[in-house]
Amino acid sequence: MVDNVQSLPALSGVLTAPDESPLRDGCVSLEPPRREGSYLGAATQIAGNIIANEGVSIKGRVVGAVIARHQLIQLSASSVVSADLEGGHVCIDGYLDGDVHASDRLTLMPSANVRGAMSTNRFECHSGAKVTGTVAACQPTGR
């Protein structure tokens, strides 16, 4: 385990600090973060709806809704979101107050704190995640 990425300059472009770990399919990745899709930084706040035909990564604050059908929606550990989410794979590692519909998979990472109703075909919950609400199976949708 690497405790301090700063002390390993040869790996600084490959590894990220633990609070900035990119999530890929519910796992921490050693690959550089992808720059595809929409990205909302930690110092950004949006009041309104986000509708995207690409993946959405959120580190900041959102009040409204996030809709990215059949796409990846990621909420990082620093995110504070009061919105309903609709995506293909929804991966949460931050705070969410709202309902979630993940047509493929819903992943709750260790720092996740979710309040709301969740529906998905596959549910993955890592140790440490907090849930106040319900989890239900949904019917698969065509892509």
Uncertain residue segments: 1-23, 27-32
What's the helix count?
0
Helix content: under 10%
DSSP strand tally: 11
Give the overall silhouette: globular
Evaluate the radius of gyration.
15 Å
Structural class: mainly beta
Sheet with the most strands, sense and barrel status: 9 strands, parallel
Note the gap between the termini.
Answer: 39 Å
**Mean model confidence by pLDDT:** 81
Q: What sequence of helices (H) and strands (E) makes up the elements? A: EEEEEEEEEEE
Strand portion, in percent?
over 45%
Family: Belongs to the bactofilin family.
Pfam families: Bactofilin (PF04519)
Organism: Vreelandella janggokensis
Protein name: Polymer-forming cytoskeletal protein
What are the defining features of this structure?
mainly beta, disordered N terminus, 143 residues, 9-stranded parallel beta sheet
Task: Give an overview in words.
Belongs to the bactofilin family. It comes from Vreelandella janggokensis. This is Polymer-forming cytoskeletal protein. InterPro entries: BacA/B. With 143 residues, the chain is mainly β. It has a domain at 44-143. Helices cover 0% and strands 55% of the residues. It has strands spanning 23-24, 27-28, 38-40, 45-51, 56-58, 61-75, 80-92, 95-97, 100-108, 113-125, 130-137. The strands form two sheets. Strands 3, 4, 5, 6, 7, 8, 9, 10 and 11 form a nine-stranded parallel β-sheet that branches. It has a two-stranded antiparallel sheet with strand order 1-2. Strand 1 (23-24) and strand 2 (27-28) form a beta hairpin. The protein is globular and about 30 Å long. The relative contact order is 0.13.
